[in-house]
Structures are given as C-alpha cells and as structure tokens.
C-alpha cells in the first residue's frame, strides 16, 4: 500500500470521535474499506446501539493455521482541547508524526492491521489458513467487545493472536490484570448528640480498610517481569453533614494483579472478607466489581513470541526487548477462549496515549504494517 493511502486510513480513523462510544462509525468505515473484496467475510456484532464490533475473516486456499489481529476502536476523552497543539480529532501530520486522540492508543495499531489485510486482498497472493481481524468496542472502560466476541466463540479456533496496543514496537507477552471494586456501607442516620439511635456507616466502612490492606499485603509473590501485586484505595466518601450520624459511606479500590494471583480467586477472597465483616452486629457492607480484567500469563520463549521478535529485529535493525506491561488489554478476555493460544502485544504506538498531544511516529506506523505482514506470511507457512 502506498504511504499516502496508509496515512489516510489512520487519519480518517482518528477523525472519528469514538470517545467511549460511537464505535459503530469506526466499524462502518473499516467495513466500507473491505467492500470491494468479496473474499473478506465482514461480520458486525452489536454490543449496544451505536457500539458495533467488527470481525473480518480472510480465508486462504487450504486448511491451515488461523492467526488473529486485534485492535479496539474506542478512545478516551481528550480533556481540555485548548491544551492541544493540534485539534485532537484532526489527525494532523507534522514533524514526522500523526497527532490526535487515539493516534497511539490504538488506532495506529488497528489501522496498520487493516492496511495489511487490504494489501493481501488487493495482491491476491495465495496463502493457507485464515486471518481474522477483531475491531472491538469498549476496551478503555472494560473490554466489553472482546468479552462479547470471546463468549460468542469468535476466538475459539485461533492459533495465535497479535494485539496492536502501543508497545513502542517492542514485544510484550504478559501484562497485569485489574480488579476495580466498590464497598458501600449502609447504616442509619441520627443526630450526632444521640449516636445510639443510628448506625455509623463510616465507622463500619473503616473496619474494612485494615482488613483489605492486610489481605493484599499477604499476596507477596513477585512476578519476575511485572513485579508484585498492587492495591490502592482510590475513592472514599460518606455522610451528609457534620452533626449527623452518616447513613451511607463508600470506598473504591483498584488492584493490579499478576498471573500468580488469578482475578477470580482474589475476588472470592475479597467477597469472603466482606461476608465475614457482615457477621458483626450492625455492619452492612455491599461490594460490587467493575469489569474485572484477568492478567495475561505468557512464555517469553514461546515460538510465536520469538517469531515476532525476530521479524521485528530484522525489519528495525535493533534488538527487540521481550517485556511485560503494567496495564491490561483485550487479551484479558481473549484468554478465556475455548483453547489456549499465544498472544503477543505489538504496536507502533508510544507512551503518549491518554495524554495531550497524543501522537504516533509515522515511520513506526509504516514499519508495523510491514512487520505484521511478514509475521502473518511466516506463521501461516
């Protein structure tokens, strides 16, 4: 694909304001790119009105392995637009970069994958097996789309998957998971001069705090790449006014997990802690979880990981680190497919995601297209 065509696709993706919604517009644009090619099977999977996942499958000439490519179509809010050097949804090209919200996280990775499939279809080059592109909704707020597609079986037959999240063109094979939780304490209001008539929701909530801190501190295994489990209380509120016994209080916490401590196991222990505290007279705590994300286990010496590393090193003429990521990705959902397959996170984006003046280096974007293409070709052979 010509440079200007590849850049045009990326710029048009950035210009679509898919801030935590409106992903259907992105799906429609990508689907239209594949309309001239009957060999591409385009499947729309609606998550909610205006929020559409896209699955594009290109079949080879014979049975063989199936490689997946995945990218999400939503972006985070741009914040104060006045602080941006260029309008965040302009896709401005300047100083050998493309600027805009999503340029790094992760419309450049998604656009590069789209370009590879369009190139293959236009060339008509025969290959064995299948290539399947996933364009998912809701990654930034909970991997909704990846979860939906996984539950519906779209990833069950994969043999390998590349997720185009920003990695500075390094190879990531593992990452943390996330547990966001909220504990609500329900009490009874009363005048502060007669506290015996009420139930102090704040005092009961504070029973939870030292217990959860101790529980998380007991998880002391350290992952050689990701480090230890992280836990922080990040929100707290309660009460109505200073001379009233508070009837409600709330705190929220964030856990960044590692493969040694599976998400479901940790959630079970936290829930049991809340149940234990509720045995105390007058204590009424309620816990809710917000789209928990599993950590991604992986093997840095897995053949697919090493394949991507080798091809990237040859193309970029540098050593390619094999590393982990402190954040979570759609891999947190795809690992729940019917069979295990290796997952590599590899994309052209940098560390400017979620920031003012988010950008991607044009040469990295174009290199990603070539690397994806060669990985696909080599893997399917």
Automatic annotation (TrEMBL):
Keyword terms: Amino-acid biosynthesis, Cobalt, Diaminopimelate biosynthesis, Hydrolase, Lysine biosynthesis, Metal-binding, Zinc
EC number: 3.5.1.18
Catalyzed chemical reaction(s): N-succinyl-(2S,6S)-2,6-diaminopimelate + H2O = (2S,6S)-2,6-diaminopimelate + succinate
Molecular function per GO: metal ion binding; succinyl-diaminopimelate desuccinylase activity
Species: Loigolactobacillus backii
Family that this chain belongs to: Belongs to the peptidase M20A family.
Domain of life according to the entry: Bacteria
Protein name: Probable succinyl-diaminopimelate desuccinylase
GO biological process, one term: diaminopimelate biosynthetic process
Cofactor list: Co(2+); Zn(2+)
């Amino acid at each position: 694909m010509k440079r200007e065509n590849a850049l045009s696709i990326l710029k048009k993706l950035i210009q679509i304001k898919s801030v935590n919604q409106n992903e259907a517009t992105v799906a429609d644009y990508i689907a239209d790119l594949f309309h001239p090619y009957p060999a591409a099977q385009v499947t729309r999977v609606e998550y909610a009105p205006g929020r559409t996942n896209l699955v594009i499958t290109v079949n080879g000439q014979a049975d063989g392995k199936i490689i997946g490519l995945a990218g999400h179509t939503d972006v985070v809010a741009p914040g104060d637009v006045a602080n941006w050097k260029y309008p965040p949804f302009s896709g401005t090209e300047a100083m050998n970069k493309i600027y805009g919200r999503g340029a790094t996280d992760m419309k450049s990775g998604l656009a590069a994958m789209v370009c590879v499939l369009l190139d293959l279809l236009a060339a008509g080059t025969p290959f064995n097996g299948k290539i399947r592109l996933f364009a998912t909704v809701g990654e930034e707020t909970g991997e909704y789309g990846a979860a939906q597609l996984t539950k519906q079986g779209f990833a069950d037959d994969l043999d390998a998957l590349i997720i185009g999240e920003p990695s500075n063109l390094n190879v990531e094979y593992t990452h943390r998971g996330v547990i966001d939780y909220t504990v609500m304490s329900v009490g009874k209001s009363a005048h502060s001069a007669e506290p015996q008539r009420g139930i102090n929701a704040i005092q009961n909530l504070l029973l939870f705090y030292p217990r959860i801190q101790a529980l998380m501190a007991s998880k002391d295994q350290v992952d050689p790449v990701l480090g230890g489990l992280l836990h922080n209380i990040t929100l707290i509120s309660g009460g109505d006014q200073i001379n009233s016994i508070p009837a409600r209080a709330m705190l929220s916490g964030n856990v960044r997990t590692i493969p040694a401590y599976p998400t479901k196991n940790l959630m079970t222990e936290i829930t049991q802690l809340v149940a234990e505290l509720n045995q105390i007279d007058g204590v009424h705590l309620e816990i809710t979880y917000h789209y928990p994300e599993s950590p991604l286990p992986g093997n840095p010496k897995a053949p697919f990981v090493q394949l991507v590393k080798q091809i990237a090193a040859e193309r970029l003429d540098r050593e390619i680190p094999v590393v982990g990521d402190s954040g979570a990705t759609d891999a947190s959902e795809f690992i729940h497919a019917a069979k295990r397959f290796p997952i590599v996170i590899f994309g052209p984006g940098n560390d400017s995601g979620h920031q003012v003046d988010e950008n991607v280096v044009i040469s990295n974007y174009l290199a990603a297209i070539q690397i994806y293409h060669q990985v696909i070709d080599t893997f399917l052979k």
